[in-house]
Amino acid sequence: MVIGSSGTGGRTGRWLALILGVSLALNVYGIWWGLPDRWNVDEDVARALRVIGERSIISRDLIHPPLYKFFLAAILAPYFLLLKAIGYPLEAVRQAASVSWLTMASEFPDFARNVYLLARFSSAVLGTATVYLVFCLGRRLFGAPAGLMGAALLALSMEFVSDSHFARSSPLVNFMGAAVVLLGVRALQDGRRRDLSWAAFLSGLAFTAKYNGAVLLVPTLAAHLIIQMRGRGAPEDPGARRLGVLLQRWLTSGLLFLLGVAAGWPGLLLDAAVFVEQLTTSSRFYGGFLYAREARISFPVGALNYLLELLRGFGAPLGVAVLVGAGLGLRRLRERQELWLLYLLAVPYFALASTYQLPDARSKFLMLVIPLLAVFGGLALARLAQSRALGKTATTAVLAVVFGYSFAYSAYADQVFTRLDTRYASTQWILANIPPGNSLEMLHDIAWLASARIIPRYQVLYLGRSSRDPAGGSLFKISESGVPELESRRLAAHCDRLRSGAISGEYVLAFLDNVADRNRPDSVPG
């Protein structure tokens, strides 16, 4: 495997173009799955449509910072202008959506499908752009071969590809995170202090897309510290003065961070009193953090869980390459001080995720650092490619197996959505096995069905209410998922209906995996 050693021309440019092409193809493949139904993983699409409909930059949602909604609104706005220009019945769409997304998707499936596709495609493009930034990072730190290997590693990482399929905030935050670290590395290598100003501002913006974006300020502050330490010992620059300059630059970075927050979340300034009231009176904002500590998983166990999740997310061969590369990077910290920016972000962030005491590790808590870890994997793979220990033919064969396996792993994992996602799979099963016109009694949670293709064909019953009865329309707007006390109350109602024999549907759909998770084995008869 021959790789160019510098720049982006010649062989390096051709390899990079191939990697970016594969990345975009994998990210785009399958983004139409499940449409035009509404999916929890794409929940910000509906929020972005609300921003467009209300024409307001004020967001009072403390749970979901608004920048990604604004980003999607900007992506979708040209589509709305086009529809308006051709006379599409947007007012009828709005009225249908006021009943429920299911109603709107049933009446205007092309509109529902297209807004999702545009939103998901923007994630695919952001994912590919992040792959390019990883190449730039790897090239600056370890040379062009390592940059190409890191980019290829990230492009084929299963969890990263999966995350780039859907309209969620993490692809935007991942892109900004890689940009922040790249700006810091460039500032240390080229002496461009203004890059650190942009890095601080971007960190504030990232915070307004996802709260964990706040940690991106750490590498910026670390870069200022490294610059000051490089001047240590100069007689014309006494220690007290250097400390004062460092504190001044940290303060400036903090102010630029806050400027980024204000730019990405203007409502914090324009509607400050409402946010102060929410922070002091609302338990919902803190409830997620309290709920996350229910399992009481100890730190060593949590760290091991997340290490295994990391290996699963990359795929075993690439995951091992990342760990080996992280070890190799430690040996170069003295000569490559820029590496501190990666370690000071990735290691504490991983440790923090490990203390998030849920019963299982969740990849979404690791996504921010996965592109940065890919840089280390690129170092390990480049070392392998340049090694003569195995011989050129054997080394090429090993790399071909590693990348071939990873490509197949990512492509296969994409299909899990259509085979295992409860709502998608149940919709397919119902359409294939139950004749249209029958009544379906839903038990436990209608969100696990939530399909626009089901509503026109069947009468759906949920806790005695009917989808064919106008009085039952509100049942399709239930949004209690994730609130433990409401879910328990609803589950108790389902169990009461089972025990009383009050089931009236010709077919009964019960998702017993969820029931078993929340009840004793004898709670549900039969």
Shape descriptor reads globular
* DSSP strand count: 4
What does the main sheet amount to?
Answer: 4 strands, mixed
Helix/strand structural class: mainly alpha
End-to-end distance = 60 Å
The rounded Rg comes to 26 Å
Order of helices and strands: HHHHHHHHHHHHHHHHHHHHHHEEEHEH
Physical arrangement of strands within the biggest beta sheet? 3-2-1-4
Nearest-integer average pLDDT: 79
In terms of DSSP E residues, the strand content is under 5%
> How large is the count of helical segments?
24
The helicity comes to: 55-70%
Low-confidence stretches: 1-6, 283-296, 478-484, 514-526
What can you tell me about this protein's structure?
The protein has 526 residues and is an all-alpha fold. Helices cover 65% and strands 3% of the residues. It has 24 helices and 4 strands. It has helices spanning 10-28, 43-54, 67-85, 90-99, 101-107, 109-142, 144-155, 158-163, 170-190, 194-207, 217-230, 239-264, 267-270, 272-281, 284-291, 299-314, 316-330, 339-354, 370-386, 392-414, 416-420, 422-433, 484-500, 512-518; strands at 439-443, 459-462, 465-466, 507-510. The chain has a 4-stranded mixed beta sheet with strand order 3-2-1-4, with no helix packed on it. The chain is globular. It starts with 9 loop residues before the first helix and ends in an 8-residue tail after the last helix.
